[in-house]
Every structure is written in C-alpha cells, then in structure tokens.
C-alpha cells in the first residue's frame, strides 16, 4: 500500500524517507574534525567590548556604569552601557563626555622610558611622545579566558584556535560526535553490511530545545523539514558553548557572544549577529536565509576593491542578488579559482580548518613617530622600551627561544631593517635584547642616514621549535597564544586558503630558521619575512574597517593603537586598492608590499602566496591573485599569479 503522502512511492522510497540525509561516513568524519563534514560544528566566541570589560573587571566597576578605554585622545573600546548613549569608538574623549557625562574613561597602560614595567598612569594621555601603549593587561586576560575555554572543553576532543586577542574558534565536532553516540545509541552500531555510504537512521522527532539561543530563521523551503542530525549536532554544539560562556562569566566575570554554525565563516558572522552576551545558531538549513541579506562587501574577504569589483562586475549589492549568477558565469568573469571560491562563499561554504597547532614565529614591539625622531638618544630610549616589552612577553614563551633579532626603521618613505643572530647560551633578558638592538642601531647609523625616523621597531624571530614535536595541543595554546592570534589572523580574516595552499603556507612559515644564515647581512630590506611575516600580516589585518563587526577582525594591535593623531580619513593602497580608515594602517600595509617585493627579490623566488595584510580584504580568494597593478614591484606578474578578469576580457 502506498502512503497517501507518496502516492507513487514504493516501500523503498518510503523507507528512505525515514533515513537521514547523512551517512555513516559523515558521522565518522565528524569524529576526526574533517573540514568538509556536513555535520561539522564550529563556534566562534568573541568577547563583548573586550578592553572595556578588562578595565571594568580590573577596577571592579558595576556592569551598568558607562566606560570607555582611552588611548591618547581617542577611544579604543566602549562598553555597552556607554554605547547606549551614542558613544562609539570613533568619538574623541571630548565628544564622548558630552554624550555621556557620567562616562568613566580609563586610559590604557603605557611603557615609559626609565620604568622597567608598564603601568596605568594618570598623565598618560598627555604623554603620547614619551609613552608607548601596553596591551599586556589585555593579553593577560585574553590568556586566562583561553585557558578556561580549554579547561572547559574535554582535552582530547578539543580544537581551539585563537583568532585575535578577544576571539577564538572552537571546532566542536569530535566532542559533538561523542555526545551524539552517548545520547543516541542507534548511532553506535556499525553500518549495515559495513557500508559507510549507507544512510543513518533519522533522529527521533523531538522538539529541539534551543534555550535562549538566537536562532537564525530557516530558509523558506526548509521550514517544513524535520530536524536531521545536523540540527541535533549544532544543538549539542550550542549547549557546549552555553556552558563555556557560563564558565567564563562565572569564573572570570566576562561576557561574550558566540556564533555556532558548520564553519568558521558562518560562526564568525554569527557571533557578531547579536551582541552583547548572546549566542546565535545558524543551522545549515538557515544559511541561505542568513547570508542573503548581507551586503557582499560585508562578507569576509569581500571588502576593498575586490568586493567592489565583484559588485560592479555583476551589478549587484547583496548576496541575494549574486546568488542567481551561475558557476560558469563566475568563472568566466573571475577566473576559475576565484569564481569557484566566490560561488561557494556566498553559499556559506567554507572548509578552512580550526587549527590549534599554531606557534609563535616572531614578536614585535613598535612605535610610529609623529613628529619624526632625529637623534640617537631618542632612538635608544625607545630601544630600551622595546627590549623591556619583548623581554616580558618572551617570559611567557619560557621554553622557546628566538634565534634572530631585527631592528626595523622607516626613513625617507622606506622601511629597512638589520638583522643579527641571538647567541645561544646567554641568558636572554632585557639587557641582552637592548645591547643587541643598540649594536644593530650602530650598524645602521654607520651605513647611512636614518633621520628623520618615522618608525622604529624591534622584533625577534626564528623561534626554536625544540619542544614542538612532543607537545600536546593544549601546551601550544597557553604558550604562544599571542602568536597564535597573530598567525591565525594572518591566515584567517583575510584569506580564504584554497585547497593546496595551506601546506605551501605552512612550509613558508616553517622557514623561520633560515634567517639565522643572514648573519649581519646588509638588508636593503624591511623585514625578515621568514621570521616576522606573521606579525606583520597580523598588524595589517587588524586594520580592517574599525567598527565593522562583520568583516573587521582586529586584534588589539599596538601599532594601530599608537595612532598618534590618527584621522578618520580613508585612504587606498595604490598598488592593490585595499582601503584603510587610518593613514598609518595604509602605511604599514604599504610597508608590507615593499617588504614582500624585497623579500621576493632577495630570495630570488616568486612566491605569490605571502599574504599582504589588510589588503587581504581586497584580494581574490586565491591569495594575491593580483591584477597586473597589484603584482610585484614594477607591476610584473609573479609566477603563479593570475589575472582577475573583472568585467570580462
Ligand atoms: N580594538 C582596537 N582598535 C580597533 C579595534 C579594536 O584597539 N580598531 C580593540 C578594542 O579595544 C576591543 C578589542 O580590540 O576591545 C576587540 O575588538 P572587537 O572585538 O572588534 O570589539 P569589542 O570592543 O570587543 O566590541 P564588540 O562587543 O563589538 O566585540
Ligand atoms: Ca569583541
Ligand atoms: Ca573581536
């Protein structure tokens, strides 16, 4: 007898309708964090008004008290009560006080010459020339929060990636898998006939309890469908995250928001969707609905010229309008890789991994000078501070030691640097770093003019990886967590890593040790990108549109924060079209281009894969994929680069 619903159906059809759309193989993939698993559960956790909360917790300030974190005359973080008065990150301190007379404005801690430790100082705002911002207090809180997250999740089933100073990605797949098997014994039995392609039984039809989650509405056609295992999986993920957030709140008194979805792209959009103190769940059947209303340029990697090119090429503004464009049309206009990537991304497809195996590659302490500095004495004072800053951060890397030190300076519109090895065997302390940096400064001075100097920075790199091999995943995270933020952001916010590129990137990063061979070689270059590209990339990546909760990944970046007299005028990179809201962001981005050119030249190679910092937003998904305008110095195309054929050609 046919059922009335399936007048023509045979019993076979009827049976399959009671099967899940997912297979035993999908279930296995879940246990092994396979990025392409359709049951995958990824969460993104982002602290609300992070620096502001740090100050509130530190000072024991009541939750409803408006508070902003001040840096010189600007605000860099504004808590939600203050946002209620219209105070925002763009406000000056004067405007903010007008809007909210009751505002507590707490200046960030600073380093000051002569002190061997950063401190909160009453007079910091008036000392932009002599002080350097310290984000150490926030790093410390960040580290505690990360640690707690890792303690809350089962150690053998977690994958946690620090994405910036106040955000992490968690791949919850393996934990969800284990909870699924626990709760649904029917999933424990082996597939009939050992056939992994066989479909799973459907989950029991029970009302799923989403508690207080913000649920993104389902796609229209999907509303009538019964829940399948992907819904159950994401619900479990959501329970896990509610627990994690509860722990963070209870133990450390921080509020955060989270997005739970089946990949990083969506979970990141989800955490920004409802703030503060909320979590948003984007079920796979809700993805289209969720993404459709986004402006294309708000999607990660679609900012800047790249996004503009996509919108103008197809004459569209929103994701919804771009959806009807076929894959073939996309490929035709954007090239095969970029076209495919765009096609997938606007459909919420993202197979990038949550990677906990990130290690610090370099550390950088920097200061931009407006006005420029002109004397050795001035420079030396800053070297003292950089040495103290790096030395205190190195303390957290206890067992890993950098092998090289670089001094970078900006003179005459160019970033240049000098490198030296750090001799092993000696205690690596502030004094040693200071002495080495002075040696480098003397070298630079003996070779040419440095003054006026617009930027000075000290970095260490080439960290020994001696403990890497046998360290548990958990071990990495506590240690180079800052680096993790840097490296993750270098990789993540900007660049979709297309298949096959990840390994190349890893190899490149692993080349960190090569720098040591360049013993006192005169670089007409900026950075030793072997050692410091992660750091530099992160710098730039952070300078994404301030205040944009969707695309902007900002890591609490000192260089940016030292925006002395920053203006809000926007500027564009003439080489790749990336746009910046802060002139110094553009500057550091252009430094990156220069560094990369020199690096490529120096190494006599043509890798197209080192990612520019903020310009990431303006790029095609296959990395630089530059137009000829964006190619290396002199506009020449690098091997492996392809032209984007915007507008058809
Ligand atoms: N930050 C910064 N400079 C920027 C952007 C951010 O110094 N241009 C710092 C902020 O102080 C912030 C932290 O980085 O506290 C994290 O940034 P973000 O998550 O973007 O903003 P939040 O202040 O945490 O606010 P939200 O609640 O929207 O996440
Ligand atoms: Ca935040
Ligand atoms: Ca953030």
Task: Describe what you observe in this structure.
- Helix content is 37%, strand content 15%.
- It has 649 residues and is α+β, with helices and mostly antiparallel strands.
- The protein has a domain at 19-294: 2-Layer Sandwich (Alpha-Beta Plaits), CATH 3.30.70.
- The termini are far apart.
- The site of one calcium ion (CA) has 5 residues, from strand 2.
- Pfam families: IMS, IMS_C, POLH-Rev1_HhH, zf_UBZ.
- InterPro entries: DNA/RNA_pol_sf, DNA_pol_Y-fam_lit_finger_sf, DNA_pol_Y-fam_little_finger, DNA_polymerase_eta, Rev_trsase/Diguanyl_cyclase, UBZ3, UmuC, Znf_C2H2_type.
The helix tally amounts to 22
Q: Please state the structural category.
A: alpha+beta
- How many extended strands? 19
Characterize the biggest β-sheet.
6 strands, mixed
Mean of residue pLDDT values: 75
Bin the strand percentage.
5-15%
Radius of gyration: 26 Å
Instruction: Measure the end-to-end span.
Output: 59 Å
Main sheet: strand order:
8-9-2-12-13-11
What name is given to the CATH topology of the domain at 19-294?
Answer: Alpha-Beta Plaits
CATH class of the domain at 19-294: Alpha Beta
Low confidence ranges: 1-16, 466-571, 598-649
CATH architecture of the domain at 19-294: 2-Layer Sandwich
Instruction: State the CATH superfamily name of the domain at 19-294.
Output: Reverse transcriptase/Diguanylate cyclase domain
Q: Which ligands appear in the coordinates? A: cytidine-5'-triphosphate, calcium ion
InterPro entries: DNA/RNA_pol_sf (IPR043502), DNA_pol_Y-fam_lit_finger_sf (IPR036775), DNA_pol_Y-fam_little_finger (IPR017961), DNA_polymerase_eta (IPR052230), Rev_trsase/Diguanyl_cyclase (IPR043128), UBZ3 (IPR041298), UmuC (IPR001126), Znf_C2H2_type (IPR013087)
Domain UmuC: 42-303
Main location: mitochondrion
Subcellular location: Mitochondrion; Nucleus
């Amino acid at each position: 007898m046919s059922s009335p619903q399936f007048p023509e159906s045979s019993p076979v059809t009827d049976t399959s309708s009671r099967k899940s759309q997912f297979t035993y193989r999908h279930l296995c993939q879940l246990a092994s964090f396979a990025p392409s698993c359709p049951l995958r559960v990824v969460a993104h956790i982002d602290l609300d008004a992070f620096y502001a909360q740090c100050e509130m917790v530190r000072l024991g300030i009541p939750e409803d008290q408006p508070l902003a974190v001040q840096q010189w005359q600007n605000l860099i973080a504004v808590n939600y009560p203050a946002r209620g008065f219209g105070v925002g990150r763009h406000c000056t301190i004067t405007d903010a006080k007008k809007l909210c007379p009751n505002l507590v404005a707490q200046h960030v801690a600073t380093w000051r010459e002569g002190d061997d430790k950063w401190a909160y100082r009453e007079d910091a705002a008036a000392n932009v020339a002599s002080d350097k911002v310290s984000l150490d207090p926030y790093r410390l809180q960040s580290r505690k929060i990360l640690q707690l997250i890792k303690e809350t999740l089962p150690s053998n089933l977690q994958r946690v990636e620090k994405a910036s100073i106040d955000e992490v990605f968690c791949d919850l797949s393996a934990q969800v898998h284990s909870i699924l098997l626990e709760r649904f014994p029917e999933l424990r039995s082996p597939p009939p006939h050992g056939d992994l392609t066989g479909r799973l039984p459907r989950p029991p039809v029970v009302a799923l309890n989403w508690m207080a989650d913000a649920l993104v509405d389902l796609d229209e056609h999907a509303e009538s469908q019964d829940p399948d295992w992907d819904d159950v999986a994401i619900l479990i993920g959501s329970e896990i995250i509610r627990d994690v957030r509860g722990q963070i709140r209870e133990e450390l008194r921080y509020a955060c928001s989270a997005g739970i979805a089946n990949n990083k792209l969506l979970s990141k959009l989800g955490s920004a969707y409802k703030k503060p103190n909320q979590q948003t769940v984007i079920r796979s059947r809700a993805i289209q609905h969720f993404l459709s209303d986004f402006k294309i340029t708000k999607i990660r990697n679609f900012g800047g010229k790249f996004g503009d090119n996509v919108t103008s090429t197809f004459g569209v503004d929103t994701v919804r309008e771009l959806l009807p464009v076929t894959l073939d049309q996309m490929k035709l206009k954007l090239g095969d890789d970029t076209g495919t990537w765009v096609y997938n991304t606007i459909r919420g497809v993202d197979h990038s991994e949550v990677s906990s195996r990130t290690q610090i590659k370099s550390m950088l302490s920097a200061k931009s000078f407006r006005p420029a500095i002109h004397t050795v004495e001035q420079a030396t004072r800053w070297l003292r501070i950089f040495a103290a800053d790096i030395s205190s951060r190195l303390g957290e890397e206890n067992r890993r030691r950098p092998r090289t030190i670089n001094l970078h300076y900006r003179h005459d519109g160019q970033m240049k640097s000098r490198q030296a090895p750090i001799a092993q065997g000696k205690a690596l302390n502030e004094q040693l770093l200071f002495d080495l940096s002075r040696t480098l400064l003397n070298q630079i001075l003996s070779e040419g003019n440095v003054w006026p100097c617009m930027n000075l920075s000290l970095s260490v790199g080439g960290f020994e990886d001696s403990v890497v091999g046998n360290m548990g995943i958990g071990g990495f995270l506590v240690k180079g967590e800052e680096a993790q933020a840097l490296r993750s952001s270098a990789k993540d916010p900007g660049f979709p890593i297309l298949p096959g590129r990840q390994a190349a990137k890893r190899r490149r990063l692993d080349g960190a040790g090569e720098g040591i061979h360049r013993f006192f070689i005169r670089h007409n270059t900026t950075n030793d990108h072997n050692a410091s590209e992660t750091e530099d990339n992160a710098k730039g990546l952070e300078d994404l549109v301030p205040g944009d909760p969707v695309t902007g990944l900002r890591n609490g970046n000192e260089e940016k924060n030292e925006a002395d007299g920053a203006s809000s005028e926007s500027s564009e990179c003439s080489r790749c079209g990336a746009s910046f809201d802060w002139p110094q962001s553009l500057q550091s981005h252009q430094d990156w281009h220069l560094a990369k050119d020199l690096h490529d030249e120096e190494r006599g190679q043509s890798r197209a894969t080192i990612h520019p910092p903020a310009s990431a937003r303006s790029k095609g998904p296959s990395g630089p994929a530059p137009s000829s305008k964006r190619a290396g110095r002199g506009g020449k195309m690098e091997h492996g680069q392809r032209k984007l054929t915007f507008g058809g050609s």
